[in-house]
Amino acid sequence: MDEADFDQVVEDALDELPEWAADALDNVVVLVEEEDADEPDLLGLYVGVPETERGHEEPFEPTRIIIFRLPLLRLTNDPATLRKEIRITVLHEIGHHFGISDERLDELGYG
Fold first, then answer.
1. pTM score, two decimals?
2. Above 80 in pLDDT, residue 28?
3. Residue ranges of the domains in the chain?
4. Of 5, 13, 16, 25, which Cα lies nearest the Cα of 69?
5. CA-closest candidate to residue 47, choices 34, 35, 26, 30
6. pLDDT tens sequence across 36-53
7. Closest Cα to residue 90, out of 19, 31, 5, 3?
8. In the CATH hierarchy, which fold is given to the domain comprising 3-107?
9. In 3D, which of 40, 29, 46, 36 has the Cα closest to residue 95?
10. How far is C-alpha 5 from the chain's CA centre?
11. Do 68 and 45 meet the contact criterion of CB atoms below 8 Å apart?
């Protein structure tokens, strides 16, 4: 899968979100990068303060969700399976934005 197709699958996953979830991501940037230099097998990363931990007075850096392309491409050669894994990774990182733990995301099938 080339970069443009990969980006499109990420966009499709975001477009499929319910309206309430998409609205809550109004100030969240979703980026695609090649891989994490420190953890090359990392599929995605949430960088920010979850909604459940925010106060009213605290200034926050912009929230970022990073999807790492190369580790996802290394998971499978099957396009349908790759699309599924990209979607799961996007939803997993969005779950962190809402304060959902890794353990709970695993239980929900987004581990």
1. 0.85
2. yes
3. 3-107
4. 5
5. 30
6. 999 999 999 999 878 777
7. 31
8. Zincin-like (3.30.2010)
9. 46
10. 17
11. yes
